[in-house]
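G., the chain you wanted modeled:
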Amino acid sequence: MPAIFPETAMFSLLSFVVLCLVGLAALYWYALPLAALKPLGNLPEPVEPPVTRFAILLPAHDEAAVIAQTVERLRALRYPADLYHIHIVADHCSDDTATLARQAGASVHERNEGPRSGKGAALSWLLERVLQDESIQAVAVFDADTRVDADFLRIMDAHMRRGVPVVQGEHIICNPGAGWFPSLTWAMFLVDNHYQNRGRVNLGFSAKHMGDSICFRADILRSMGWGEGLTEDYQLRQRLLLQGIRILYDPRARGYGEAAPTWTAAQKQRLRWISGARRAGRQFAPQLIREGLRRKDRAMLEGGMQAYLPSYSTLALVTLVLLGGQLISYQLWGVPARGLLFAWAGLGTLLFLYPFWGLAARRAPLRAYLVMCSGTVFILWRTWLALRVRIQRRAVSWVRTAHGDSST
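Predicted structure as tokens:
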């Protein structure tokens, strides 16, 4: 027994050190739901009459199945018709997207030059044209399939009158009945909006730029543009932080969009997101951390540290694997100490319950809890995609996600 004591002590010490490291990362993720318990304060009430002049921008590539309905809904917003205008960029379309959008009442800008490299390039091209009109005071961006709440612009008008630079509305998945993946995505977005937007804003951080249902003061986009890349929305958030601009979150301004209907479509989309976020993280994180420390800006620091913190999925999987390995080790060799095993089990339980706290806070229906129970499959799938991004050398390209009855 004395001969193996040093090895036993070393194993327990190693387990304790790793537990502390994993626990620190878990502490960050749990700070968000704790902060989300507090109501969002100081959200302005809409004021009559509205005064902000909006440009509504939608990028569209072969969206004939949904674009007319989207434009018709936007024209029916409870906002003075002379204070907003709908602009569609028909990006390298091979169907009737442009014709249908015009017939529905939008101004259509057809883009056929250059490569079709995704939403960012199309929006940047459109912004250069639309923002030449100096009377435009704010810009709202939606996806081609987004169903916008009727009071969206009235809520954004209240923020713009206060001089708020950027406001992210709540993006809600509208097709949970289309299959298992859309259903899981719907439940995850309920949690994501509550934790990563409401929680972040309450901590003084910046909300996520979700690429849809978001509004900018026009001068911000005139000076910074939209940007291009696999995840230009994430990159723009980081660039905004470097300018000291935080994204506010207002869940009263809602947009309803479709999730990828199939695993194949979702896989292409997730590969793009993971790859783009990884590149942007490497690009902006060091500068954000340096500037955050220099300016004592917590939002900058958090934005930079995100590149180095494990995602919730990765953290949960690592904890599960390490707990399983130590349970086996304890059965075979009696190490690590029992107290450490209880600590690991407690951490694993907290991480398992993490999304369910969010569902409870949102008063989600029973089916959200049921589909979230299959989240382990998603965690394994997402981790596999993240590993693919790290080891493959082939560049990930933009691939359109089908909406409505559109073909891919």
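The CA atoms of residues 200 and 277 lie 18 Å apart.

Shout if anything looks off.
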